[in-house]
């Protein structure tokens, strides 16, 4: 019993002490080995009881040795002991950027309508960004103040809208065409709470026989309801784009006040979210599509604007600052 207490109380700081402990008890001359040697002298009637006790003792020593070793061997690279019972440090899990969130949501809405996703280069030539889209040679959008040029003559530039992807799609696919084109675009604008020189767009294009303005309107209404909820209203106002005819701008009833009037909609009850229209026959022809047989609609919108409405973000610059206090707020939106 005394030996058993000693075994229970044993502590060691290193493996050598453990080894000494083992030799002292279980080695050739160890106390327990000796007990086994003396066992033959035990009277027969006590053999059972004493034998059991010695075995318990031996097991206790072996358990003790292996548990101490387990702790001692849990060391880090510097040989420092590691407390394996300490709670671990949690891995920080990132969050999706609000722009990615709305982009993914919008893509999934259009996928339900049969649209697929097309992408294209950020560095483009004049033809894909302007020429094929019916911009006259002196159109102000080509102006140095608006477009970032990389080279002049021939003009290489950063795309100012994702309509260039639609041009590339029309060149390579035959109708029916149904694509949405998300991407980053660049315009030489002063950075403020409401404007940035880099932003994101998603544009859509549908070309087939007998596509009408009614198809466009119904698609956009469905889209607005999926994105902002069943009660949202849409309004189309006449507008102008070189690549669509007729053209319109689409407003949705203010998603903040529900159309009643607030600061965000400047008390009009409406928010402008996109441009759209019927693809100009000149554009179809420029891209090798028979404009007598086919017609189509196109639309385009800025993702920053939509995310602002959805998440009530008041300053565009927040999207680009990578401040984790801002980004972390979208954890639940994953
Ligand atoms: N490309 C236009 C823009 O960048 C948006 C648009 C796309 C308008 C398609 C009409 C049709 O502002």
UniProtKB/TrEMBL annotation:
InterPro entries: aa-tRNA-synth_II, aa-tRNA-synth_II/BPL/LPL, Phe-tRNA_ligase_II_N, Phe_tRNA_ligase_alpha1_bac, Phenylalanyl-tRNA_Synthase, tRNA-bd_arm. One of its GO terms (cellular component) is cytoplasm. Binds 2 magnesium ions per tetramer. Residues 102-329 form the Aminoacyl-transfer RNA synthetases class-II family profile domain. The keyword DNA damage does not apply. It is an enzyme of class 6 (ligase). SUPFAM superfamilies: Class II aaRS and biotin synthetases, tRNA-binding arm. The keyword NADP does not apply. It comes from the Bacteria. Gene3D superfamilies: Bira Bifunctional Protein, Domain 2 (3.30.930.10). Mg(2+) binds at residue 245. It catalyses: tRNA(Phe) + L-phenylalanine + ATP = L-phenylalanyl-tRNA(Phe) + AMP + diphosphate + H(+). One of its GO terms (biological process) is phenylalanyl-tRNA aminoacylation. Tetramer of two alpha and two beta subunits. This is Phenylalanine--tRNA ligase alpha subunit. The gene is pheS.
């Amino acid at each position: 019993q005394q030996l058993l207490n000693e075994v229970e109380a044993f502590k060691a700081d290193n493996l050598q002490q453990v080894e000494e402990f083992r030799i002292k008890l279980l080695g050739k001359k160890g106390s327990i080995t000796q007990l086994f040697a003396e066992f033959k002298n035990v009277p027969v009637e006590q053999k059972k009881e004493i034998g059991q006790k010695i075995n318990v003792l031996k097991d206790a020593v072996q358990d003790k040795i292996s548990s101490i070793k387990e702790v001692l061997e849990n060391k880090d690279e510097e040989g420092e002991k590691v407390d394996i019972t300490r709670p671990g440090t949690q891995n920080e899990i990132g969050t999706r950027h609000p722009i990615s969130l709305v982009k993914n949501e919008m893509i999934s809405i259009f996928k339900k309508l049969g649209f697929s996703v097309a992408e294209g280069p950020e560095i483009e030539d004049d033809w894909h960004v302007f020429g094929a889209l019916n911009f006259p040679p002196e159109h102000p959008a080509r102006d140095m103040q608006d477009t970032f040029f990389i080279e002049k003559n021939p003009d290489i530039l950063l795309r100012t809208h994702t309509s260039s992807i639609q041009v590339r799609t029309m060149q390579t696919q035959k109708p029916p065409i149904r694509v949405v084109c998300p991407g980053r675009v660049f315009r030489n604008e002063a950075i403020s709470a409401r404007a940035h020189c880099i932003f994101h767009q998603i544009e859509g294009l549908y070309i087939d026989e007998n596509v009408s303005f009614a198809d466009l309107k119904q698609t956009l209404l469905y889209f607005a309801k999926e994105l902002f909820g069943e009660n949202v209203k849409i309004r189309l106002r006449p507008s102008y784009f070189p690549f669509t005819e007729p053209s319109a701008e689409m407003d949705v009833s203010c998603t903040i006040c529900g159309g009643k009037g607030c600061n965000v909609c400047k008390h009009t009850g409406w928010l402008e979210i996109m441009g759209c229209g019927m693809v100009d026959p000149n554009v179809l022809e420029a891209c090798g599509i028979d404009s007598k047989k086919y017609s189509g609609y196109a639309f385009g919108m800025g993702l920053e604007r939509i995310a602002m409405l959805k998440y009530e973000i008041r300053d565009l610059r927040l999207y680009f600052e990578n401040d984790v206090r801002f980004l972390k707020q979208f954890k639940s939106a994953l």
